[in-house]
């Protein structure tokens, strides 16, 4: 990177070579992570190295010494110690903190510095597909996890709607007008990105007020670690009534093509664009402060009105100027998703025009999907802009064993040292959903403090040892198989779904429910067998319990597709006996899967719904949030929604309470057609199932628990006994 550009960015972000460590905050953090053990640690400050974070680790006078240039580096030193000296692991889906009474000493001194200026985290979609209902307690855990893993550049967009309310009300808009603008809480990501208006609303005032306060806590804690937060900015999305209030404004209609009404975008050429953008940054800064980083994705999944380079250059300048007018130190953080998603539109001239309109020191580009579809290597590394290599991995918050582990282990470091990568300045994780596939995320974050490729085979064995608290040969062999099967995924948008989550069909797959496997399912079945055989030694491990349930879930989810196709063949051949056999087995499989998933809090629909309701202070609010929660993971809109099943989840409660009744309805109708020799009435079924789905989405029946029940290991073992031979014969 050119020295001048790096210096300018360092100045713009306010990064300092001076060590900034708050002793009390660091000890409070250690106490939160390992309660009762903070007295065993000494925290000391050291300066940055070459403008980047650094930590050191050692022992002195019977205590563990953690040194770093900020709270985040101290946290990373702690994580390194816990993983490498205490055989511990901290994750979303199972944590092992079975520490020895006397903490191991560190022989010599460990010194680590990161090659990456930025370690980015989150995607707009994550804030809804996973984080929609989080309270401060859950956010606090996530921020601690971020610090442990060296993340220093989190997207921070909670509470944005409160700031927009301030801005638009200052311009004369009424609450009634804004009710047709703000979406419900489960749909903010697409509201913020200018895709939809109002769906899931109207948004209660209490939500705006409470989440303004929540954002203040989030930002205060993130900044206390030394993180530089990425806030939001104006991209042109305005209320539907804007065209009436300002008839001379250049407002155009656009549509996301997902079954929702048009939204309204203010043309960057309009003189009001910069005015509103400035107002917003000023109001946001007053409420939340600033680290001078602003996210803006003007055409996220929307196509510009023209591919003319002059227009795109001018539009980009106006968007940036709307930030810089309020904050001269503004740095535009742009998600590069559109360059992949609308790749036919965004050719090299268009991308170049958009990017080159902004000075290099005032823009950072997220190569959002580097793990599968990098754009940096076909744009001359974003034409010299600082950019960040990112792992997307999950779409829609779907539950599926999936990832490209060998790419995640090697590609960031390979890109870092590639002369063609030019100003690659960081790495990041940008998933649509989290709290799944914990091994993949742990592997990606292993890159933070190193600049060479990771040996995935060796790493996965060490991960299993840390996660389970001991070496187990069978578990190690299982993870070797997982690495070379489910975690050697192809170029699909996330992992394969199961046919059980599809609206009933004879087809092996439907839109939004893709069931193709990029691996031999028999290999996964072998890993399942190995994990089951390791239960005697590992069953007390929280992480092992989750992994055993997750692998069992995936095996049964895959097998469901075979049963469904046998059912379809039996129906089409008129074989009543086989139709009954396979349809009955299919429904039983769903019951078994639901009971298995009910044993882990990670897989409970009731947890999702009850957390949504907990955000409300009136019954009306609670019911609105429950509608949002139910709708997002099922229809994603109204009963005719084209995004149906996009955010499908293999969750206890959702399988037995939503997916299974649809299939039962389908089988009843098919059975009737077989018995009477009449054709199946697709149109009648389609209407009936849509009515049923919409009714379910609108219920408030307190039908789903948020408390896990049953023994996960015993359930998995019982299903292994029941299904092992049947599945082996099926393949």
From TrEMBL:
<dbReference type="InterPro" id="IPR029018">
    <property type="entry name" value="Hex-like_dom2"/>
</dbReference>
<dbReference type="Pfam" id="PF05089">
    <property type="entry name" value="NAGLU"/>
</dbReference>
<dbReference type="GO" id="GO:0016787">
    <property type="term" value="F:hydrolase activity"/>
</dbReference>
<dbReference type="InterPro" id="IPR024240">
    <property type="entry name" value="NAGLU_N"/>
</dbReference>
<dbReference type="InterPro" id="IPR024733">
    <property type="entry name" value="NAGLU_tim-barrel"/>
</dbReference>
<protein>
    <submittedName>
        <fullName>Alpha-N-acetylglucosaminidase</fullName>
    </submittedName>
</protein>
<keyword id="KW-0732">Signal</keyword>
<dbReference type="InterPro" id="IPR024732">
    <property type="entry name" value="NAGLU_C"/>
</dbReference>
<feature type="domain" description="Alpha-N-acetylglucosaminidase N-terminal">
    <location>
        <begin position="25"/>
        <end position="104"/>
    </location>
</feature>
<keyword id="KW-0378">Hydrolase</keyword>
<dbReference type="InterPro" id="IPR007781">
    <property type="entry name" value="NAGLU"/>
</dbReference>
<feature type="signal peptide">
    <location>
        <begin position="1"/>
        <end position="19"/>
    </location>
</feature>
<dbReference type="Pfam" id="PF12971">
    <property type="entry name" value="NAGLU_N"/>
</dbReference>
<feature type="domain" description="Alpha-N-acetylglucosaminidase tim-barrel">
    <location>
        <begin position="119"/>
        <end position="450"/>
    </location>
</feature>
<dbReference type="GO" id="GO:0005975">
    <property type="term" value="P:carbohydrate metabolic process"/>
</dbReference>
<dbReference type="Pfam" id="PF12972">
    <property type="entry name" value="NAGLU_C"/>
</dbReference>
<feature type="domain" description="Alpha-N-acetylglucosaminidase C-terminal">
    <location>
        <begin position="459"/>
        <end position="721"/>
    </location>
</feature>
């Amino acid at each position: 990177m050119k020295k001048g550009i790096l210096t300018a960015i360092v100045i713009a972000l306010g990064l300092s070579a001076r060590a900034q460590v708050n002793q009390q905050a660091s000890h409070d953090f250690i106490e939160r992570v390992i309660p009762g053990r903070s007295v065993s640690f000494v925290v000391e400050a050291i300066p940055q190295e070459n403008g980047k974070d650094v930590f050191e680790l050692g022992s002195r006078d019977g205590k563990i010494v953690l040194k770093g240039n900020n709270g985040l580096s101290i946290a990373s030193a702690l994580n390194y110690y816990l993983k490498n000296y205490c055989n511990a692991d901290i994750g979303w889906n199972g944590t092992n903190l079975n520490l020895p009474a006397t903490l191991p000493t560190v022989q010599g001194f460990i010194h680590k510095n990161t090659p990456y200026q930025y370690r980015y985290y989150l995607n707009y979609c994550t804030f809804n597909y996973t984080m929609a209902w989080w309270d401060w307690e859950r956010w606090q855990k996530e921020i601690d996890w971020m610090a442990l893993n060296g993340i220093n550049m989190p997207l921070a967009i909670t509470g944005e709607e409160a700031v927009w309310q301030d801005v638009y009300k200052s311009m004369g808009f009424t609450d009634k007008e804004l009710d047709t603008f703000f979406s419900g809480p489960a749909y903010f990501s697409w509201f913020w990105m200018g895709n939809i208006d109002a769906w899931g609303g109207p948004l209660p005032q209490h939500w705006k007020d409470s989440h303004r306060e929540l954002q203040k806590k989030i930002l205060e804690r993130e900044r206390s670690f030394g993180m530089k937060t990425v806030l939001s900015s104006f991209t042109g999305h305005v209320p539907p009534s804007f065209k009436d209030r300002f008839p001379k404004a250049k407002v155009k209609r656009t549509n996301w093509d997902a079954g929702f009404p048009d939204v309204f975008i203010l043309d960057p050429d309009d003189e009001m664009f910069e005015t509103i953008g400035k107002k917003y940054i000023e109001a946001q800064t007053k409420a939340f402060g600033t680290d001078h980083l602003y996210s803006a994705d003007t055409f996220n999944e929307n196509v510009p009105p023209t591919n003319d380079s002059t227009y795109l250059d001018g539009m980009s300048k106006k968007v940036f100027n709307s930030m810089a007018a309020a904050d001269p130190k503004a740095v535009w953080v742009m998600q590069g998703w559109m360059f992949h998603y609308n790749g036919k539109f965004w050719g090299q001239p268009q991308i170049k025009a958009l990017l080159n309109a902004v000075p290099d020191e005032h823009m950072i580009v997220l190569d959002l999907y580097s793990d599968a579809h990098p754009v940096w290597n076909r744009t001359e590394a974003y034409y010299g802009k600082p950019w960040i290599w990112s792992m997307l991995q999950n779409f829609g918050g779907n539950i599926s064993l999936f990832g490209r582990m060998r790419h995640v282990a090697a590609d960031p470091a390979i890109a870092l040292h590639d002369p063609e990568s030019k100003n690659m300045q960081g790495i990041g994780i940008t998933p649509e959903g989290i709290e799944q596939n914990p091994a993949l995320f742990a592997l990606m974050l292993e890159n933070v403090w190193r600049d060479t490729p990771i040996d995935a085979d060796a790493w996965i064995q060490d991960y299993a040892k840390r996660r389970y608290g001991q070496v187990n040969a069978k578990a190690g062999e299982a993870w070797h198989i997982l690495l070379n099967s489910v975690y050697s995924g192809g170029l699909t948008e996330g992992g394969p779904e199961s046919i059980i989550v599809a609206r009933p069909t004879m087809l092996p797959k439907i839109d939004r429910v893709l069931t193709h496997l990029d691996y031999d399912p028999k290999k996964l079945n072998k890993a399942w067998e190995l994990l089951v055989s390791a239960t005697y030694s590992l069953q007390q491990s929280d992480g092992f319990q989750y992994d055993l349930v997750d692998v069992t879930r995936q095996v049964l989810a895959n097998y469901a597709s075979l049963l469904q196709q046998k059912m379809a063949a039996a129906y089409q051949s008129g074989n009543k006996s086989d139709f009954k056999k396979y349809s009955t087995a299919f429904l039983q499989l769903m019951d078994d899967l639901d009971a298995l998933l009910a044993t882990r809090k990670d897989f409970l629909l009731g947890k999702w719904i009850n957390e949504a309701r907990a955000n409300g202070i009136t019954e009306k609010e609670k019911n609105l949030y429950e509608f949002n929660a139910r709708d997002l993971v099922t229809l994603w809109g109204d009963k005719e929604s084209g995004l149906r099943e996009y955010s499908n989840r293999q969750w206890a409660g959702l399988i037995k309470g939503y997916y299974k009744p649809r299939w039962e309805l389908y089988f009843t109708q098919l059975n009737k057609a077989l018995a009477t020799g009449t054709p199946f009435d697709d149109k009648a079924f389609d209407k009936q199932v849509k009515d049923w789905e919409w009714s379910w989405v609108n219920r408030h029946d307190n039908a789903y628990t948020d408390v896990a029940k049953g023994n996960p290991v015993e359930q998995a073992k019982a299903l292994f006994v029941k299904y092992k031979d049947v599945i082996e014969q099926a393949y």
